[in-house]
Design brief:
Length: 267
Protein backbone atom coordinates (compact mmCIF):
# COMPACT_ATOMS: atom_id res chain seq x y z
CA UNK A 1 0.00 0.00 0.00
CA UNK A 2 1.27 3.45 -0.95
CA UNK A 3 0.92 4.82 2.57
CA UNK A 4 3.25 2.16 3.97
CA UNK A 5 5.99 2.70 1.39
CA UNK A 6 6.10 6.42 2.12
CA UNK A 7 5.31 6.75 5.82
CA UNK A 8 8.18 7.52 8.15
CA UNK A 9 8.34 5.64 11.45
CA UNK A 10 8.41 7.51 14.76
CA UNK A 11 12.13 6.79 15.12
CA UNK A 12 12.83 8.14 11.63
CA UNK A 13 10.84 11.27 12.41
CA UNK A 14 12.83 11.79 15.61
CA UNK A 15 16.04 11.75 13.58
CA UNK A 16 14.54 14.04 10.94
CA UNK A 17 13.51 16.50 13.65
CA UNK A 18 17.07 16.47 15.00
CA UNK A 19 18.49 16.99 11.50
CA UNK A 20 15.97 19.77 10.91
CA UNK A 21 16.80 21.59 14.11
CA UNK A 22 20.48 21.67 13.10
CA UNK A 23 19.60 22.91 9.60
CA UNK A 24 17.39 25.61 11.13
CA UNK A 25 20.20 26.62 13.44
CA UNK A 26 22.58 27.02 10.50
CA UNK A 27 20.24 29.30 8.57
CA UNK A 28 19.57 31.40 11.69
CA UNK A 29 23.26 31.59 12.58
CA UNK A 30 24.53 32.63 9.14
CA UNK A 31 22.30 35.70 8.65
CA UNK A 32 24.49 38.18 10.50
CA UNK A 33 27.54 37.06 8.50
CA UNK A 34 25.97 37.85 5.12
CA UNK A 35 27.53 41.27 4.60
CA UNK A 36 29.29 43.07 1.75
CA UNK A 37 32.93 41.95 1.44
CA UNK A 38 32.49 38.36 2.65
CA UNK A 39 33.17 35.48 0.25
CA UNK A 40 30.64 32.73 -0.35
CA UNK A 41 33.27 30.14 0.60
CA UNK A 42 33.72 31.81 3.99
CA UNK A 43 29.96 31.56 4.55
CA UNK A 44 30.02 27.91 3.49
CA UNK A 45 32.90 27.12 5.86
CA UNK A 46 31.01 28.67 8.78
CA UNK A 47 27.92 26.59 7.94
CA UNK A 48 29.99 23.45 7.57
CA UNK A 49 31.73 23.88 10.92
CA UNK A 50 28.48 24.78 12.69
CA UNK A 51 26.77 21.62 11.42
CA UNK A 52 29.65 19.39 12.47
CA UNK A 53 29.91 21.20 15.82
CA UNK A 54 26.26 20.44 16.50
CA UNK A 55 26.48 16.73 15.72
CA UNK A 56 25.16 16.79 12.17
CA UNK A 57 26.62 15.60 8.89
CA UNK A 58 26.78 18.13 6.02
CA UNK A 59 25.02 15.87 3.53
CA UNK A 60 25.92 17.80 0.37
CA UNK A 61 29.63 17.06 0.89
CA UNK A 62 30.40 14.14 -1.38
CA UNK A 63 26.91 14.08 -2.87
CA UNK A 64 27.41 13.31 -6.59
CA UNK A 65 30.92 14.73 -6.21
CA UNK A 66 29.80 18.05 -4.68
CA UNK A 67 32.41 19.42 -2.27
CA UNK A 68 30.59 21.94 -0.07
CA UNK A 69 28.11 21.96 2.82
CA UNK A 70 25.86 24.54 1.16
CA UNK A 71 24.78 25.82 -2.19
CA UNK A 72 25.00 29.61 -2.32
CA UNK A 73 23.16 31.13 -5.26
CA UNK A 74 23.69 34.85 -5.85
CA UNK A 75 21.45 37.21 -7.91
CA UNK A 76 20.82 35.56 -11.31
CA UNK A 77 22.01 32.18 -10.03
CA UNK A 78 18.95 29.95 -9.83
CA UNK A 79 20.36 27.14 -7.67
CA UNK A 80 23.39 24.96 -6.94
CA UNK A 81 25.70 27.98 -6.75
CA UNK A 82 29.12 26.69 -5.71
CA UNK A 83 30.73 28.59 -2.80
CA UNK A 84 33.96 30.24 -3.88
CA UNK A 85 36.07 33.40 -3.85
CA UNK A 86 33.23 35.64 -5.04
CA UNK A 87 32.97 38.69 -2.76
CA UNK A 88 29.44 39.73 -1.89
CA UNK A 89 28.67 43.34 -2.66
CA UNK A 90 26.02 45.72 -1.38
CA UNK A 91 22.59 44.71 -2.62
CA UNK A 92 23.45 41.12 -3.59
CA UNK A 93 20.48 38.77 -3.17
CA UNK A 94 21.37 35.20 -2.28
CA UNK A 95 19.98 31.83 -1.33
CA UNK A 96 21.76 29.55 1.12
CA UNK A 97 20.62 25.94 0.83
CA UNK A 98 21.69 23.34 3.38
CA UNK A 99 21.07 19.63 3.86
CA UNK A 100 21.83 18.04 7.24
CA UNK A 101 21.97 14.33 7.91
CA UNK A 102 21.59 12.92 11.41
CA UNK A 103 21.29 9.22 12.34
CA UNK A 104 20.84 8.47 8.65
CA UNK A 105 17.91 10.84 8.08
CA UNK A 106 17.94 14.16 6.18
CA UNK A 107 16.50 17.66 6.42
CA UNK A 108 16.76 20.13 3.53
CA UNK A 109 16.01 23.84 3.77
CA UNK A 110 17.01 27.16 2.26
CA UNK A 111 16.40 30.85 2.78
CA UNK A 112 17.13 34.16 1.09
CA UNK A 113 19.53 36.78 2.40
CA UNK A 114 20.71 40.19 1.26
CA UNK A 115 24.18 41.66 1.69
CA UNK A 116 23.55 45.24 2.74
CA UNK A 117 20.45 46.92 1.36
CA UNK A 118 18.23 45.16 -1.21
CA UNK A 119 16.79 46.82 -4.29
CA UNK A 120 13.00 47.08 -4.28
CA UNK A 121 12.89 44.50 -7.09
CA UNK A 122 14.99 42.05 -5.09
CA UNK A 123 12.89 42.47 -1.95
CA UNK A 124 9.69 41.97 -3.96
CA UNK A 125 10.93 38.83 -5.72
CA UNK A 126 12.15 37.30 -2.48
CA UNK A 127 8.86 38.01 -0.70
CA UNK A 128 6.74 36.69 -3.59
CA UNK A 129 8.80 33.50 -3.57
CA UNK A 130 8.46 33.02 0.18
CA UNK A 131 4.70 33.54 -0.13
CA UNK A 132 4.64 30.97 -2.94
CA UNK A 133 6.34 28.46 -0.62
CA UNK A 134 3.91 29.27 2.20
CA UNK A 135 0.90 28.93 -0.11
CA UNK A 136 2.25 25.56 -1.27
CA UNK A 137 2.63 24.47 2.35
CA UNK A 138 -0.97 25.48 3.06
CA UNK A 139 -2.07 22.98 0.38
CA UNK A 140 -0.33 20.07 2.11
CA UNK A 141 -2.47 17.53 3.94
CA UNK A 142 -3.71 13.96 3.74
CA UNK A 143 -5.79 13.54 0.59
CA UNK A 144 -4.47 16.65 -1.18
CA UNK A 145 -2.53 16.14 -4.42
CA UNK A 146 0.85 17.25 -5.66
CA UNK A 147 -1.00 19.22 -8.34
CA UNK A 148 -2.69 21.30 -5.62
CA UNK A 149 0.75 22.46 -4.45
CA UNK A 150 2.05 23.17 -7.95
CA UNK A 151 -1.06 25.05 -9.04
CA UNK A 152 -1.09 27.49 -6.14
CA UNK A 153 2.62 28.28 -6.53
CA UNK A 154 2.32 28.82 -10.27
CA UNK A 155 -0.69 31.07 -9.74
CA UNK A 156 1.08 33.20 -7.14
CA UNK A 157 4.10 33.64 -9.40
CA UNK A 158 1.88 34.74 -12.28
CA UNK A 159 0.03 37.27 -10.11
CA UNK A 160 3.39 38.74 -9.15
CA UNK A 161 4.71 38.93 -12.71
CA UNK A 162 7.33 36.24 -12.06
CA UNK A 163 8.05 32.90 -13.73
CA UNK A 164 8.47 29.50 -12.09
CA UNK A 165 11.60 27.50 -12.94
CA UNK A 166 10.51 24.04 -14.10
CA UNK A 167 13.90 22.34 -14.25
CA UNK A 168 14.11 21.76 -10.47
CA UNK A 169 11.54 20.27 -8.15
CA UNK A 170 10.90 19.54 -4.51
CA UNK A 171 11.19 15.90 -3.50
CA UNK A 172 10.50 13.21 -0.99
CA UNK A 173 13.18 13.12 1.70
CA UNK A 174 14.21 10.64 4.39
CA UNK A 175 17.06 8.14 4.42
CA UNK A 176 18.01 9.66 1.07
CA UNK A 177 18.29 13.38 0.34
CA UNK A 178 16.19 12.94 -2.78
CA UNK A 179 13.33 10.43 -2.73
CA UNK A 180 10.10 10.05 -4.63
CA UNK A 181 7.82 11.82 -5.29
CA UNK A 182 8.92 14.73 -7.47
CA UNK A 183 7.18 17.85 -6.13
CA UNK A 184 6.57 20.21 -9.06
CA UNK A 185 6.03 23.91 -8.52
CA UNK A 186 3.53 24.13 -11.35
CA UNK A 187 0.57 22.01 -12.40
CA UNK A 188 -3.15 21.60 -12.05
CA UNK A 189 -5.28 21.29 -8.97
CA UNK A 190 -6.56 17.78 -8.27
CA UNK A 191 -3.96 16.07 -10.46
CA UNK A 192 -0.92 13.99 -9.56
CA UNK A 193 -0.07 11.76 -6.65
CA UNK A 194 -2.13 11.99 -3.47
CA UNK A 195 -0.35 13.01 -0.27
CA UNK A 196 -0.51 10.56 2.61
CA UNK A 197 0.03 11.23 6.32
CA UNK A 198 3.57 10.26 7.32
CA UNK A 199 5.17 11.32 4.04
CA UNK A 200 8.00 13.84 4.24
CA UNK A 201 8.61 16.11 1.28
CA UNK A 202 10.35 19.34 0.41
CA UNK A 203 8.73 22.28 -1.31
CA UNK A 204 11.30 24.64 -2.84
CA UNK A 205 9.92 26.99 -5.48
CA UNK A 206 12.35 29.00 -7.60
CA UNK A 207 10.88 32.19 -9.07
CA UNK A 208 12.59 34.37 -11.66
CA UNK A 209 11.91 38.07 -12.16
CA UNK A 210 12.19 37.41 -15.91
CA UNK A 211 11.73 34.28 -18.01
CA UNK A 212 11.84 30.76 -16.55
CA UNK A 213 14.58 29.41 -18.82
CA UNK A 214 17.89 28.53 -17.21
CA UNK A 215 21.46 27.87 -18.35
CA UNK A 216 24.16 25.70 -16.82
CA UNK A 217 27.51 27.32 -16.05
CA UNK A 218 30.87 25.73 -16.88
CA UNK A 219 31.57 24.45 -13.34
CA UNK A 220 29.00 21.71 -13.94
CA UNK A 221 26.85 22.74 -10.94
CA UNK A 222 25.81 26.37 -11.06
CA UNK A 223 22.53 27.11 -12.83
CA UNK A 224 21.61 30.69 -13.76
CA UNK A 225 18.73 32.46 -15.48
CA UNK A 226 19.15 32.56 -19.24
CA UNK A 227 18.08 36.21 -19.43
CA UNK A 228 20.26 37.23 -16.42
CA UNK A 229 17.19 38.25 -14.41
CA UNK A 230 17.13 37.86 -10.62
CA UNK A 231 16.09 34.52 -9.13
CA UNK A 232 14.89 33.57 -5.65
CA UNK A 233 14.15 30.33 -3.79
CA UNK A 234 12.91 29.27 -0.36
CA UNK A 235 12.72 25.67 0.83
CA UNK A 236 11.19 23.72 3.69
CA UNK A 237 11.01 20.06 4.65
CA UNK A 238 7.45 19.21 5.76
CA UNK A 239 5.72 16.22 7.31
CA UNK A 240 2.27 15.44 5.91
CA UNK A 241 -0.37 14.97 8.62
CA UNK A 242 -4.03 14.01 8.32
CA UNK A 243 -5.32 17.57 8.31
CA UNK A 244 -2.28 19.56 7.21
CA UNK A 245 1.42 19.42 7.79
CA UNK A 246 4.21 20.15 10.22
CA UNK A 247 7.04 22.32 8.91
CA UNK A 248 10.05 20.46 10.25
CA UNK A 249 12.45 23.24 9.26
CA UNK A 250 10.42 26.24 10.49
CA UNK A 251 12.82 28.89 11.78
CA UNK A 252 11.99 30.72 15.03
CA UNK A 253 12.63 34.01 13.20
CA UNK A 254 9.91 33.32 10.64
CA UNK A 255 7.36 31.62 12.93
CA UNK A 256 5.32 34.74 13.70
CA UNK A 257 5.15 35.87 10.05
CA UNK A 258 4.21 32.35 8.94
CA UNK A 259 1.44 32.10 11.55
CA UNK A 260 0.00 35.46 10.54
CA UNK A 261 0.16 34.54 6.85
CA UNK A 262 -1.47 31.14 7.42
CA UNK A 263 -4.23 32.67 9.56
CA UNK A 264 -5.01 35.32 6.94
CA UNK A 265 -5.14 32.78 4.10
CA UNK A 266 -7.09 30.14 5.97
CA UNK A 267 -9.66 32.82 6.78
N1 LIG B 1 19.69 21.19 -1.43
C1 LIG B 1 19.39 20.84 -2.78
C2 LIG B 1 17.92 20.50 -2.86
O1 LIG B 1 17.15 21.29 -2.39
C3 LIG B 1 20.26 19.74 -3.30
C4 LIG B 1 21.70 20.09 -3.26
S1 LIG B 1 22.57 19.11 -4.35
C5 LIG B 1 24.12 19.07 -3.67
O2 LIG B 1 17.46 19.49 -3.29
F1 LIG B 1 24.86 18.46 -4.49
F2 LIG B 1 24.52 20.27 -3.41
F3 LIG B 1 24.05 18.40 -2.56
CO1 LIG C 1 15.59 20.02 -1.74
CO1 LIG D 1 17.88 22.23 -0.63
Amino acid sequence: MLQVTHAKTAAMLDAMRDAASIAVGVLEMIGEHVVPGVTTEALDRRCHDWIVGHGGVPACVGYLGYRHATCISVNDVVCHGVPGSRLLKDGDLLNIDVVVQRDGLHADTSAMYVAGVPSIAAARLSRATQEALWLGILEVGGGKTLGDIGAVIQDHARRNGCSVVRDFCGHGIGTAMHEKPEVRHFGQRGTGERLMPGMTITIEPILNAGAREVRALADGWTVATRDRSLSAQWEHTVLVTTDGCEILTLRPSEAAAWKAFAASRRG
